[in-house]
Structures are given as C-alpha cells and as structure tokens.
Amino acid sequence: MPTLRLAVPADAVAGAAMHAACWREAYAPYVDEELLERRLADVARWNAAWLRHIVDGPPRLLAEADGELVGFAAAGPSRDDDPPTPHELYAIYVRASWWGTGLGQTLWEAVAPDGPCSLWVLEANARAQGFYRRNGFVADGAREHYAGLDASEIRMVKT
Prior knowledge:
By secondary structure, the chain is α+β, with helices and mostly antiparallel strands. Helices cover 36% and strands 31% of the residues. The protein has 5 helices and 7 strands. It has a 7-stranded mixed β-sheet with strand order 1-2-3-4-5-7-6, sandwiched between helices. It starts with a strand and ends with a strand.
C-alpha cells in the first residue's frame, strides 16, 4: 500500500501531473475528449493551482508508491452557497492502476471529517457514486452543470 503524507510546495508540479492523469482516466468515458484535453493543456495553470492549494490549504493528502504520486484527497469546509453539511470532500483521486486496491478507501478514511459531509460527483460516473454510497453518502437531489467539462454533477451527502 502506498505511503500517505501531506503535500508540501515541492509536490506542486508532480501533484498537478498526477491530478491531470487522474482526470484523463476517470473522466474520459463521460466527457468530450477534446474538451477534457483543452482543460488539461494549461500545465502552468494546473501547477499554480496545486501550489496555491498546498500553501493556502486545506491540506492535501498524497499517496506515494515507489517515489510516484498515485492519488490524493482533500476535505474542508463546505463551499456551497447553501450548504447541506458543514464539511465537503473536495477531491479524492486515485490512478487507474490503483483502482480496486483499497487506496481510495484509505484516503477517504484519512481525510473524512468528523460530522456530516457533502461532495459533488459527475452524474454519469456510476463507479465513483458506488464508492461514495458504500461510505454512507446518498444523492440529495441537487444537480449542477459543470461548464468546465460540459457535464452534469450531483451532490451526495453523508449525515
């Protein structure tokens, strides 16, 4: 099993590259390939965003195996305008080669907040929704259009 550790500024470039690879693997079946590649093309923007998130928080928990970043997770205060829960799972991504190994579960357990939590997930991503349901999340009926990927998202909550 990979080692878990908090991200530091020196991880920004590798973290951004791993995040982009996770997007390709996770979202390719559900969104337009050209749109996805356009979103991922600005490497400098991804690197800067990762550095900003590492510096400004909340903490990003990395999974590292043999010197390679293979996943990450982050949770913090809800960003919704009318939050159904005080906490939100912002991200949990694992490289496809690690799917089904329990790494996603390990990351979730390491960042899971005390108390109710919400998250947003692509409506078409049944695999991710199944993972969240196994961890006590249910869809609450909220739905948004994620313009960046031209895809619908649903909100799931755990009380």
